[in-house]
Amino acid sequence: EAGVVQSPRYKIIEKKQPVAFWCNPISGHNTLYWYLQNLGQGPELLIRYENEEAVDDSQLPKDRFSAERLKGVDSTLKIQPAELGDSAVYLCASSSDSAYNEQFFGPGTRLTVL
Amino acid sequence: ELKVEQNPLFLSMQEGKNYTIYCNYSTTSDRLYWYRQDPGKSLESLFVLLSNGAVKQEGRLMASLDTKARLSTLHITAAVHDLSATYFCAVVTTGNQFYFGTGTSLTVIP
C-alpha cells in the first residue's frame, strides 16, 4: 500500500513569491491534515479536512495561506506571498475512520524562503 | 489551550543504558501516540495508547499511559545506536484534535 505522497520535497523561493504544495493521501483515507513543523519543534496543525470540508482551519493564517481538497482526495496548500518566517517543513498526513484515527505522515516539503 | 510538554528535550545516552522520556499534558485526552522522526524524514508511528494503564512494548521501547496523572512515558531499555532519533508524543482530544509535544532528541553513543 502506497503511503502519503507529497511534492515537491524541497522548494527554495524568494520572499513575496507564491508557492504551492501537493499531497496525495493514502487511498480510502477521508481525513487529511496539513502541519507546519519548524526546526526543533513538533508539528502544528494548519488545517484538517474531512472529505472536501475543512473542519478545522483555526490555525491557518488566512491572509496568505489557502488550501483546497477538491473531490475529497488530493490537496494543495498555497502561500502567497511567502515571507521569510514561512521557512519550515510542511507535512501532510491522512487517517481513516478507524477507532484510532491513526495518522500516517508524508515525507514533507522543506520550504526555504530567501 | 492544551499544552504537551516533553522532557528531557535532549538526551545523550550510552549504549546499553536505560532511560525514560516523559510526556505531560494539561487536559483530558482520548488517546496518546508516540512517534519517531529521523533527521530529514517524516514521522513514524510507534505506539497508540488508548486507556489508563495501557502499556505497549516493541523491542527495546515500552510506552505507558497514566490518564489520571496526565502522563505518558517512553522507556528505553539497553539503548542501541539505531534508536537515535527525535521522539514525539501526541495527545488527542475530543474532536480528534492532535497536539504534539516539543520532541526529545535522543543520541545513543557507542
Quick rundown:
The complex is a heterodimer of chains A (114) and B (110). With 114 residues, chain A is mostly beta strands. Chain A has strands at residues 5-7, 10-13, 19-24, 31-37, 44-50, 53-56, 65-68, 75-79, 88-95, 104-105, 109-113.
Number of strands of chain A: 11
Residue windows where pLDDT falls under 50 for at least 5 positions of chain A: none
- Strand content of chain A is over 45%
End-to-end gap of chain B? 40 Å
Low-pLDDT parts of chain B are none
| Oligomeric state | heterodimer
How many angstroms separate the termini of chain A? 37 Å
For the sheet with most strands of chain B, the description reads: 6 strands, mixed
Helical stretch tally of chain B: 0
Name the helix and strand elements of chain B from N-terminus to C-terminus, one letter apiece.
Answer: EEEEEEEEEEE
Strand content of chain B: over 45%
Radius of gyration of chain A: 13 Å
Mean pLDDT of chain B: 93
The biggest beta sheet of chain A reads: 7 strands, mixed
What structural class do helix, strand and pairing data of chain B support?
Answer: mainly beta
Helix and strand pattern of chain A: EEEEEEEEEEE
User: Per the principal axes of the C-alpha atoms, what is the gross shape of chain A?
Assistant: globular
